[in-house]
Structure formats: C-alpha cells, structure tokens
C-alpha cells in the first residue's frame, strides 16, 4: 500500500487501480460460477418439506476451532451472494397474482417467499390478510420467511404482529421474527431482540439468531446489549454469535470490549478464535496491532483466525513486511493459506519476495493459494524469474488440479489463478480445461475466463 509522503514509481497508481479492478472482476466471475452450481442444490433443498428453520441471511456462519479455514471463507462468500442469486423475481405480477402465488402449495418455496416479500412491501389490507393466513396455516419454513419479510412492511399492523411472533412457540417463526425485527431496527424491535438473546428459557438457536440480528441493528441499544452479553453470557455457542454480532458494529465503538475480552485469563481457545474472527466483520478498519498480537499464539486455529481477519478489511493497512516475515516462519499449512490470502489483499507485493516462499510450498490448499498470490504479483511487476517459474511449473500443476483433484473449490481456485496470471501458457491451459469433459462448473469457469481474455 502506498503511504502518504512516499514517492510513487511511474505507473504504480495505474497498476494498483488495474489490480483492484481485476480482482473484483475475477471474484465476480468465480462467484457466479459457484452460485450457478450451488443454486440448484439450494432450490432442491428448500423445495423439500422440512421442519428445520431457514438459515439467517446476511451473516457469515461461525466456524469452530476445528473447521477448515478455506471452508469458512467460502461459506461467508456464498452466504453473502446466495440470497440475491436464489430469490426469484416477481416483475409485473398484480397483487391478486402475488396472493395466488403465495397461497398455492404447489408453488416452490422460493417462489412463495418472493411473493411474500413483494406483498409485505405493498403492505395493503389484502396483502396483510394473505400474509396472516400463511402464518396460521403455512409450513414452518414459509412462516419463518413471512415473519422475516414483515420487517420491510409499511403496514401499521406489521410491528405488533412481529413483536407477537417473536414469542411464537414455533421456533422457525420466532427466528424469522428476529430477522424481521432487525430490519425494523427501532427501539421496540431492538428491545424484543435483546430480551430473546438474554432469555435463558429460549432455545440456543433462537438466542444465537437474536445475537446475530443485533449485529445488523446500528442502534446504541443494540450495541449496548451485545457488550453486556459479552460479559454475562457463558454458553460458548451463544457467545460465539454474540461476538459475531458485536463485530458487525464499528470497531471504534467495540475496540475496548474486544481488547478486554481477549485479555481474559479464563478464555477458551474457541472463544478466542470467535472473537478474532468477529473482528473481520467490522465495517471499519481494525487496529492491526490488536490482531498482530496473536501471530505467535501457540494454537494454529487462533493464528489462522488472525490471517482471516486481516484478509477481510476493505482498506487494509500496509502489513507486507509483517505478513512476509510471518509466512517465512509459519509451519501450519492452514495458517499459511490464510497468510497468502492476506497478502493478496495487500498492494504492491513484490514477486521477488513471494517466489522463493512459493517454490518451497508443498501443502495442497496453501500451495494453490501461494500460486494465486504469485499470479497477482507477476501480473503487477512482470518479474521474468517469476513468470518463467509460473509457466514452467505452476501452469501444469494447476491444470492437473482442475482435471484430477475432484474438489470443486480447489479446482475453481486453480482456474482463477490461471486467469489472474494471464500468461500464454496459462491461456493454453484454460483452453484445455474449457474443452475437457470434466466438471461442468470448471468448464464454464474456464470458458468465461477465456472470453474475458479475448475481449468478448
């Protein structure tokens, strides 16, 4: 990252701008391919009768101390985009048609949810009657969806109805009401959500839903409730999502609470991981020193959490020297994967500094992440040694991963790396993948990458 007062080399600003735009384009490309595959599974899942409540949208799921670092980031990305990709639109439907769609049990759940949202936004008397009818006779998942969309409803009946639904004996409906109340975001809604979070007689699932919901309410009362919960709640499952919710508030308002929490002597490793990961959700930048204090923690899951949190900042501090030094000393492959990702989020990392580290990288996912970082750096500075190594060694390796690994996440990461490099050898490999009768998602990703390079 270029610091104020430092001289920039010619073309540096332009190169950085191109790098940011390139990362955004590629992220969108691969995200679209992943969504195309996952949407089918999600739609089928939602179409089956189920008593399970729908997942909360808008929040990244918490990873446990034993979860894969790659899985956590992947779930976070998918959670942020799936609602947009899955939800059917209802253009041009009249109120009468929307009501018919909502009340028709033969319609897929996603279509009925879309109708419910459109009707809630209308807020008319007929729309409210239809929504109330579903709350009486609908399936558990549909009730939860209606409770959630009532938070967008302008009808004066919506608020008292939501407050009542928050106490529903049906847990799916009550959890949906937490999300609906969070969308309302006023004092009464915040009070109801906070009450549910602290109520020891409510289920753990509902209390965690309430904690996550408070993360989306930018009100002092919501922040104060989460801070109080950090001090009072001892159940680690609930506490994890309390920290998650707290992390969604500005770091300037939560720093003291996080520092105090992380300094506790009675803190378990899983709670420490949850707190550090929660810092990655902050809408403003987290003070790097707070995270870097844990780079030498004896537990690799804690160090991996630090790497993940450093990856998520929108405007990251310049940590290239610290991250490169840490990477050279780090032995755990899951942590190394995180460090490669964090370095990819930094500006102007020199390929000459990355090349010797990547050449010695042997672990699977960390190796792919390291090659991805190398692709970014050689594209930025054109180092001939890095380019030769990438073309002579990395291209064949990445192509083989796509064709033989059997893992969609790793294969897509390999395709993205070839695309980011954009060398002639990488383009040749992408052509081969695009024509190979392997995974359709990989073929589609390679074809889209080739279109971008051909200018079409």
Keywords:
24 helices; 71% helix; mainly alpha; single chain; flat; disordered N terminus
* Proportion of residues in helical segments: over 70%
SSE pattern: HHHHHHHHHHHHHHHHHHHHHHHH
Sheet/helix structural class: mainly alpha
| Average predicted local confidence, pLDDT | 83
Tally of separate helices = 24
* Shape label: flat
Total number of beta strands? 0
Cα-to-Cα separation, first versus last residue = 32 Å
The value of Rg in angstroms is 24 Å
- Which regions have little confidence, pLDDT < 50, spanning 5+ residues? 1-88
Q: How big a fraction of the residues is strand?
A: under 5%
Largest sheet, if any? none
Characterize the structure shown.
- The chain is mostly helical.
- It contains 24 helices and no strands.
- The radius of gyration is 24 Å and the shape is flat.
- The two termini are 32 Å apart.
Could you provide a short overview of the structure?
This protein has 456 residues and is an all-alpha fold. It has 24 helices and no strands.
Note the topology.
Blueprint: H1 12-47, H2 69-86, H3 95-103, H4 109-122, H5 125-137, H6 140-149, H7 158-165, H8 171-184, H9 187-198, H10 204-215, H11 220-232, H12 236-247, H13 251-262, H14 269-279, H15 288-292, H16 300-311, H17 320-329, H18 333-344, H19 351-359, H20 364-381, H21 384-404, H22 408-421, H23 424-435, H24 440-454
Helix pairs in contact: 1-2, 1-22, 1-24, 3-4, 3-5, 4-5, 4-6, 5-6, 6-8, 7-8, 8-9, 8-10, 9-10, 9-11, 10-12, 11-12, 11-13, 12-14, 13-14, 14-16, 16-18, 17-18, 18-20, 19-20, 20-21, 20-22, 21-22, 21-23, 22-23, 22-24, 23-24
